[in-house]
Amino acid sequence: MASNRDKIHNLDDSDVDELDVDEAWNDWNADEKDENGDDDSEFKCLFCNINFTSSDSMIQHCDSTHRFDFPNLKKSLGLDFYGCFKLVNYVRAMVAQNSCWSCGHQCKSNQELLNHLHQTNVSQELKLLWDDDRYLQPFMEGDSLLYSFDQDEDFEEDDCMQSVDEEELSRIVREAKEVSRILGDVEKICSDDEVMVDADASSPTDSNREVTKVMPSTSIGSSSREAVVNGVDAGCDLSDAMKKNLSLRASFGRVAASDIKKVNESYFGSYSSFGIHREMLNDKVRMDSYSQAILKNPSLLGGAAVMDVGCGTGILSLFAAQAGASRVIAVDASEKMVAVASQIAKENGFLRNASTCKGSKQSSDVVEVVHGMIEDIEKSISIEPHTIDVLLSEWMGYCLLYESMLSSVLFARDRWLKPGGAILPDTATMFAAGFGRGCTSLPFWENVYGIDMSSVGKELVKDAAEHPIVDFVDSNDIVTETASLKNFDLATMKIEDMDFTSSIELQPKSASVAESSDKKHGLTWCHGVVLWFDTGFTSRFCKEMPANLSTSPYTPKTHWAQTIFTFREPISLSSGRLDAKSSGVVGTDSCPASKIEVRISIARAPQHRAIDISMETSAISHDCRRQAWPVQIFNLS
């Protein structure tokens, strides 16, 4: 549900918002300190209820009393920062079930478990017990032990690991602890302000489409191979942890209630603009896909109870009514658009309780237009749980997940959709490919009415390496094969699946356009990665006429365009083995890469309704040598 790119704002406005957030958070911290007095941390034993004033004393107690030798486990298994993080959460989860962490034996009580605990033979297979991303979620709120690991100095490092900037890492961890403390008060604040804070219950998002610089405190980071954030060394494997609610800011998906309320009001107010709706209604790819899925599948819609989440003008709801739905609940949080949608439904003879049907042969009294966020509509209308046959929504934003509206759709699915009910669309897939020089601003600035202004182009490319760009990409400028980044099944996915890390390989095309290639030497230069998405109305639900909505650069343009992430420096590629210098740097003209490995993490950002993206890039030579670049952090807000 993306809006006009002309709405993209400058950084100055977002800077003010960031300052407001920081001030609000500082106020909450001050209040908490006043209430709690002493700010010293307590370290709760992993197995019993004893608290300690230091992590060292707690760890020694676990070893001597409960036969849990944490330092030996860490050293023998080569656990990094987040390996330790997972282990702690795994152990706490097992103890909460009165289960032995090493052998899985189920005890009847905690005391029986304490008596059962035994020495464990350390082997690499042991790591499989907690090798699950769910253990990146803190099991115990405010667990001080999780934030003590930054004081350790003996974590294993990969060969390519650079030295840790202790000051930077400590700053990030302090922020994590600050946010964790704040979250303890968020529910109370939300209750006072009558604002829902949990990102799991968020609704359609800000259409102002700002593309701003990443916040100083980043929320996703680098892999264990290269721990450098935007050129600054930041320690161990940040990307996995920060994306998985590692109590670092993006992962929580929560911010100050007052700021969420402000963002929501701005967002829903912006969707009162008819210009935005005209742009979406004028998107032929969008409209054809939805109309085909709704109008060409009578067995799905005939007699069905339908819910339209974020209905806007209500056109999709009217499609459902035309398709024979018995009831359509159209929900929108913009008061103005609810009035507009109601009027349109009335004029077309579908509004529930409408006095006239204008001679239409279609069934009347079908569409109910409800004002409110989807999480709150039960205050306005009574809907029995699990009574909806078809859940309908156009929730997609730039880079698919920008806007965070998907969480509202999943909320509606879990609350009202019947078991086995249909959700439209029911799949979404993100794709990635490498782009060439023609997709940058370099060609334009090299010849401006005969004047060489390439220095300006280089400066813009440098800036683009820090900011995502939403724009149309010419398919001729794609220089690699397309890779599938992430698949979502809307019928089964969970809200936390919106935060993910995925690794892909970009293989050079057999033939690239001349503008991105050096024909003489057979090289192709890749300047970055472009992302797009498809959403599917598959035969699982649309049995008569499946449909697909694609925002690919290879298909007709949509208002979503594509999202561009620029490398700091281009990488040379060659599909065939060249006479490269074995000592040359991989990815340069003297030693072109055979492929590019990219690891991308996407997580809901601290700014409500925004997303953070990290990109880690490595070039692989034909003789399997590797050149890695520092992780790049982008913020789409």
TrEMBL record:
GO terms for cellular component: nucleus. Keywords: Metal-binding, Methyltransferase, S-adenosyl-L-methionine, Transferase, Zinc, Zinc-finger. InterPro entries: Arg_MeTrfase, Methyltransf_25, PRMT_dom, SAM-dependent_MTases_sf, ZN622/Rei1/Reh1_Znf-C2H2, Znf_C2H2_sf, Znf_C2H2_type. Residues 43-71 form the C2H2-type domain. Coiled coil: none annotated. GO terms for biological process: chromatin remodeling; methylation; regulation of DNA-templated transcription. This is Probable protein arginine N-methyltransferase 3. The gene is LOC110790490. It comes from the Eukaryota. It catalyses: L-arginyl-[protein] + 2 S-adenosyl-L-methionine = N(omega),N(omega)-dimethyl-L-arginyl-[protein] + 2 S-adenosyl-L-homocysteine + 2 H(+); L-arginyl-[protein] + S-adenosyl-L-methionine = N(omega)-methyl-L-arginyl-[protein] + S-adenosyl-L-homocysteine + H(+). The keyword Ribosomal protein does not apply. Pfam families: Methyltransf_25, PRMT_C, zf-C2H2_2.
